[in-house]
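Posting this for the archive.
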Amino acid sequence: MRSDEVILMKIVILGFGAVGQGVARVISLKREHLLDKYGLQLDIVAVADRSGGAVFDQGLDPELLLKTKNETGKLSQYPDFGVEGFSGLEILDKVEYDCLVEVTPTNIEDGEPALSHMLKALKDGKDVVTSNKGPLALSFTQLSEAAQETGANFKYEASVGGAMPIINLAHDTLAGSDIESVYGILNGTTNYILSRMAKEGSSYEQTLNEARELGIAETDPTQDVDGWDAACKIVILANSVLNLERTLKDVKVEGISQITPEAMALAKKEGYLIKLIGEASQDVLEVSPRLVKEGSPFAVEGTLNVATLKTDLAEDVTVVGKGAGSIETASAILSDLLNIWKAS
């Protein structure tokens, strides 16, 4: 039954690629559900892409945002409320809002422009929800301290494992346990490539090209196949779950480009698979190809992610989920938005 009292949350979305569009689509799909179950109305009051953006403090139409982006490629072409050339920081100054959803492209060199976007919002006392790994892997402590200083919420479930609920699981469900380590497959592209190599006996290069053709691998897949995407996620888990102060430079990283069909066949003969595994503990911060037992929780195929949290009270807790995808990642962002609403 719909609540008599409707609570309005005004949202700014910076970045309107696959994830940003997924957020708009999920808000559109779930509008009635959120009103009926929670009495919560999510209004998108500003969105930005490289062209500029669209701003309207009474709320933009999510479906029209998607239509405009699909047909013109530019949010600045949004009817009546499109603006050209505005930067993300300018939009944050222009509009009244409650929460920033930061989903611009990941930059693991300096975290920009997302780092500046998030710091501004947090210092202004605005809540931040993000899927953006770069700033978290490089400047997690700085962002957390900015949130603490103003009392703003800082949520990032979608930055690790897409729809796989690992951060909120650690913070909420396992709140009474000490978590000693996190160990898992945290990149869907590499898991797809290694799964296909094991199954088909194909070469790395052949399988990578297949992944590109299917849209599973980027045109430039370097961050995935060289292990840097998983390394960013390991840093986020180390800081957020294990309370370590680490950055990307602290991770030992090895990718999958040197793995051969012969190595795969030898592993399989012994009852093992080769997977790209990330591990975070007090003593280890590493991403590397490792042997996992066939039939174990880590023998997942395709683009699935899996992670095990080793705890003192609950022993090993393992979660599996889709590690990528527009709607899947947006579902984690929606979960964070709801958690902010519940805490308010």
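The two ends are 21 Å apart (CA to CA). The domain at 170-322 is CATH 3.30.360.10 (Dihydrodipicolinate Reductase; domain 2).
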